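Before surveying the methods themselves, let us examine one representative protein, pairing a chain with its fold in token form.
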Amino acid sequence: MNQAVMNIPGLSIPDQKTFDQQMTASVDLQAHWSTYFTQGDVAGLAAFGMNALRIPIGFWAFDNTGTPFQSGAQYWLDQAIGWARQYNMQILLDVHGSPGSQNGWDHSGDTSQVAWQSASNMSSLGKNMQQTIDILLNVTAKYGSLDYADVIMGIEIVNEPINWGPNNFQITKTWAATAYNAMMAVATNPNLQIITHDSFMGQQNWWDLGSAINGNLPAGSPNFALDLHLYQNMVPSDSSLNVIQHIQQACAWGNAAPNALLPYYVGEFSAATNVCVNPDGTSFGNDGSVSCTVPGCQCTDTVSIDQWSQALKDTTRMFWEAQLQSFEHNAAGYFLWSLHGYGAWSLVDLFNYGIVGPTIDDRMYGYQCNYTV
């Protein structure tokens, strides 16, 4: 969900479903789609050294029948695919919002419910899970064809389905296998990857399914893969870490035991942390237990990025580079959330304010993680 869509003064807009029912939604969306992500953005990403895009898009872009969602996004998806092809970039097409909402969060399109698994059980799928597969089949018939084999590397079938509340992880897992088999039956691109978010369960809880699917395929050509979202600013325990501890945690991600039969992508990560940094580079977690006492101390969540000190920029870059080293050591690929946004969530801001180097491969701090292989 793009933040810019929701920034309408005077309106309380919790999600896309609410926004799309506003009187001016159609006009506002067209203005947003035509300006928010452009060919120039793709050119800039390619020049920075990125070679792939993860494009999130709601199910309603492909079928909004019986919903209040506005159509029209698929046209702009096709424009982005054309730009990616022009700059030799690959695309992970991510169906980011699922019918009924898979988590009740704003980026699912609907904060009013978590009904994706409604009426589903281990032997049969409810309406929303079946509709998700029907939509994925239409997506695969087009974007999983040989016509797109040069640019579409994978299709993500669901984003961040929660494993608590009304959702059952085993149903999610069974559904993922069903979706995979159905999609591969219509795909004509033999190298297409079907990717699912791990439902916050970690790699090992998917190894059996990965082995069952990819174990029968030629070595080195898995069609099924995981998406992990690795943040260090989303749970309270992360807010107590200083920058060195954040870096240690990032390096530990790269030490996770890989499974050759189930590759994983880091579909989302961020350079954002909740830290405070002194002018000499020492830092502490901003969990409310300690406050700045040294003149010039700055905290990431209270100081605008355009006002960051060099010390805060440098420590953020250290964390950024450690994450890249970790992902390049162990993951099949990685995608920053996001291009546009704010502060350390935004690649544009990180670049414009001199926090990252001129290219993705530029390293100021060398190798911070001590990997033996």
Remarks:
- Residues 26 and 199 are 33 Å apart (CA to CA).
- The chain has two domains: 14-201, 237-373.
- The two ends are 38 Å apart (CA to CA).
